[in-house]
């Protein structure tokens, strides 16, 4: 079993090479490549359970890391010119269709670029068509699209395959949620695990102005103390490590940018080899430490969750994200004490809280209209894990069609739901809301990060007989941290 586990970890490292080359061109683990030349790695699909191999809709080559690497090499030979017909077809896709196709391509190992980029999306479709021995056009025919999504549906049903952004680190990753249904915070990220910890996926983010990648690499190799490193590679932009951790196999992949390291660790019992194998190559393909474009955020049902609210009346009314205020045994408005949830609206995604007693409040008067598309600033108080004090943090973004909010930089968003959205003049446009979706199965009706407009908030308040403030302070003075304590 030890040999089989080593094969999976080799696949993890080899499968990482094409994706790393896209985001950070020098990360090529030379020791691993030499090992590959001396003894070719057997295809992973030979070890997949019979019930998976028997499904003709799932091509065995999809789960083989060698196939992923080969496609990366063949991509260089493809013309880079984008056909006008392909561009037109891509722009005609709905957001939901595009996200589902991207998720399917990520599982298959055809998507080697950053999520959301047209060039990478077209290249991924061409990779898929080449692998299927079809005409390479960059546009999926109805039959190709049907086959691709049907295969993705099988993966989703079998593993609960999802592609999401981890709010704690800002990294995008693919998760087999049926293998790792349990989720909890860690000091530096998030951990997904099976019921008894046989399989674990853990993200981490380490940030410091004077951070040295070498120091993080050395720390990951020796901590925890039970780690025994068998393969490792370090470059200026990131590192790869694999080996044994106690009685489990482990593999770490990380990337460095602007004084920050983001990565993830896979840890599993050796007896889980044949179950984990089909997922490892897909996880490597989907992982993007600093993703471009918008991706749904991972669902995080925390026992203690942080967010933001806006004081909207001098009688103690606060508007916040409905999801944040759901299932709470206790809701606390930091600095004011306990708050009662008195109303909510599923369509708008809003919840109405109220605090009582004599308070010095700074309610905000809501503007009757909102600005058009353009640059905006998100203002809120992040999760204490990101920032221990209650100071405001600002995130630059852009407001686009459908009230979608597009982040300028991939940053951690933990604790930021319910934050205020301000235009270039500092006017309050509404509340930022983070949406939880599964790419492969959900037809998205709203963007992953969206604006709930000030007029929508006014209508919500009026429907619940709340008179909004007519004269208000600066929006930043009206923001309060909301804490939900669940079971």
CATH fold-level topology of the largest domain: Protein Transport Mog1p, Chain A
Assembly type of the shown chains?
Answer: single chain
Number of domains: 2
CATH classification class of the largest domain: Alpha Beta
pLDDT < 50 runs, ≥5 residues: 14-84, 437-445
What characterizes the major β-sheet? Answer: 7 strands, antiparallel
Structural class: alpha+beta
For the record, give the distance between the C-alpha atoms at the N and C termini, rounded to a whole number: 40 Å
- Overall shape: it is globular
How much helix is in the residues?
Answer: 25-40%
User: Strand tally, please?
Assistant: 22
Looking at CATH, the homologous superfamily of the largest domain is Mog1/PsbP, alpha/beta/alpha sandwich
Write the layout of secondary structure elements.
Layout: H1 2-23, H2 30-38, H3 50-53, H4 65-75, H5 84-91, H6 95-108, H7 118-131, H8 142-159, E1 161-165, E2 172-176, E3 182-186, E4 189-193, E5 199-207, H9 213-222, E6 227-235, E7 238-245, E8 248-257, E9 260-269, H10 273-286, E10 304-311, E11 317-321, E12 330-333, E13 337-338, E14 340-345, E15 350-354, E16 374-380, E17 393-399, E18 405-407, E19 420-422, E20 428-434, E21 449-453, H11 454-463, H12 475-478, E22 479-485
Antiparallel strand pairs: 1-2, 3-4, 4-5, 5-9, 6-7, 7-8, 8-9, 10-11, 10-22, 11-15, 12-13, 12-22, 14-15, 16-17, 16-19, 17-18, 19-20, 20-21
């Amino acid at each position: 079993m030890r040999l089989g586990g080593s094969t999976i970890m080799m696949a993890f490292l080899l499968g990482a090479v094409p994706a790393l080359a896209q985001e950070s061109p020098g990360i090529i683990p030379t020791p691993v490549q030499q090992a590959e030349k001396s003894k070719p790695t057997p295809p992973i699909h030979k070890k997949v359970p019979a019930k998976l191999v028997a499904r003709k809709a799932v091509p065995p080559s999809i789960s083989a890391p060698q196939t992923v690497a080969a496609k990366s090499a063949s991509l260089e030979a493809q013309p880079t010119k984008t056909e006008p017909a392909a561009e037109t077809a891509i722009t005609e896709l709905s957001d939901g269709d595009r996200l589902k196709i991207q998720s399917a391509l990520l599982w298959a190992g055809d998507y080697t670029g950053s999520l959301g980029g047209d060039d990478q999306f077209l290249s991924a479709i061409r990779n898929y068509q080449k692998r299927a021995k079809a005409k390479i056009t960059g546009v999926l025919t109805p039959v190709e699209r049907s086959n691709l999504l049907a295969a993705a549906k099988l993966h989703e049903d079998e593993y609960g395959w999802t592609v999401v952004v981890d709010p704690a680190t800002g990294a995008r990753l693919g998760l087999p949620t049926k293998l790792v249904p349990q989720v909890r915070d860690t000091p530096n990220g998030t951990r997904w695990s099976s019921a008894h910890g046989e399989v674990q996926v853990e993200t981490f983010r380490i940030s410091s102005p004077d951070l040295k990648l070498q120091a993080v690499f050395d720390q990951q190799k020796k901590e925890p103390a039970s780690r025994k490193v068998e393969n490792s590679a370090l470059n200026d932009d990131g590192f790869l490590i694999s080996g044994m951790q106690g009685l489990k196999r482990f593999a770490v992949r990380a990337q460095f940018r602007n004084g920050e390291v983001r990565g993830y660790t896979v840890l599993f019992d050796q007896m889980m080899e044949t179950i984990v194998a089909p997922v490892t190559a897909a996880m490597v393909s989907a992982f993007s430490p600093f993703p471009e474009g918008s991706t749904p955020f991972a669902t995080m049902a925390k026992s203690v969750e942080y967010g933001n609210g806006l004081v909207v009346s001098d009688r103690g009314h606060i508007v916040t994200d409905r999801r944040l205020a759901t299932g709470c045994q206790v809701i606390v408005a930091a600095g004011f004490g306990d708050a009662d949830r008195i109303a909510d609206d599923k369509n708008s995604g809003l919840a109405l809280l109220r605090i009582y007693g004599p308070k010095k409040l700074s309610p905000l008067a809501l503007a009757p209209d909102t600005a058009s598309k353009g640059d905006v600033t998100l203002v809120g108080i992040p999760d204490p894990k990101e920032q221990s004090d209650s100071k405001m943090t600002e995130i630059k973004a852009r407001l686009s069609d459908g009230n979608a909010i597009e982040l300028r930089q991939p940053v951690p968003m933990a604790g930021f739901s319910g934050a205020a959205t301000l235009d270039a003049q500092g006017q309050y446009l509404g509340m930022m809301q983070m949406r939880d979706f599964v790419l492969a199965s959900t037809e998205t009706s709203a963007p992953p990060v969206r604006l709930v407009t000030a007029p929508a908030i006014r209508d919500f308040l009026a429907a619940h007989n709340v008179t909004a403030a007519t004269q208000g302070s600066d929006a930043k003075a009206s923001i309060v941290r909301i804490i939900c304590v669940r079971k």
